[in-house]
Every structure is written in C-alpha cells, then in structure tokens.
Amino acid sequence: MIEALNETDRTEALADLPEWDHDEARDAITRRIVFADFIEAFGFMTQVALIAERMNHHPEWSNVYNRVDVLLTTHDAGGLSARDIDMAQAIDAIVGED
C-alpha cells in the first residue's frame, strides 16, 4: 500500500522541487510549463506519458497550445506520496531542471 507523505517528508521533498507548488486542498503538487510551441509541448507530454506508463503513475494534466499544466497526487494514498515526488523529478529532468 502506498502511503501519503507526512508533513516533514512533504516539506523536505518540496524544498527540492522549487518549480512546483503545493495544492493544500488536494494535497498535490502543480506546475505550469510553457514551451515554444504546440509541437514542443506535445513532445514533452509524449516523453512523460512513456515514463508514467513505466511507473504506473499517471499525472492529471491539460495542454493548451504551448502550455502544459500538471497536477500530481496519489489517489490511492489520499494525497502526495513518494511516487509524485519521483514523477516530478522525472518531469524536471525532461524540462532540463534536474
């Protein structure tokens, strides 16, 4: 069973993810990423989709032209878990901010 992060672990994890915001209402993290155009945004989403399948952990996201909004939370845990932190780090690495 996957467990939600406790307050200490959440605080430490978020300190290492400066581009992500904590959504307290959903106990999730969010990030908006802006690309040069739609093709670049879609290419990013394709890369994340492949990682998400391997991790069996899928983001909530939306795309409008060159913008991708990502929300990560673990529904089975009822909030933010280590899986979300791992996914955020993988996303940052794709964007080049690892």
Automatic annotation (TrEMBL):
It comes from Sphingomonas rubra. It comes from the Bacteria. Keywords: Lyase. Pfam families: Pterin_4a. Coiled coil: none annotated. It catalyses: (4aS,6R)-4a-hydroxy-L-erythro-5,6,7,8-tetrahydrobiopterin = (6R)-L-erythro-6,7-dihydrobiopterin + H2O. PANTHER family: PTERIN-4-ALPHA-CARBINOLAMINE DEHYDRATASE (PTHR12599). One of its GO terms (molecular function) is 4-alpha-hydroxytetrahydrobiopterin dehydratase activity. This is Putative pterin-4-alpha-carbinolamine dehydratase. It is an enzyme of class 4 (lyase). Belongs to the pterin-4-alpha-carbinolamine dehydratase family. GO terms for biological process: tetrahydrobiopterin biosynthetic process.
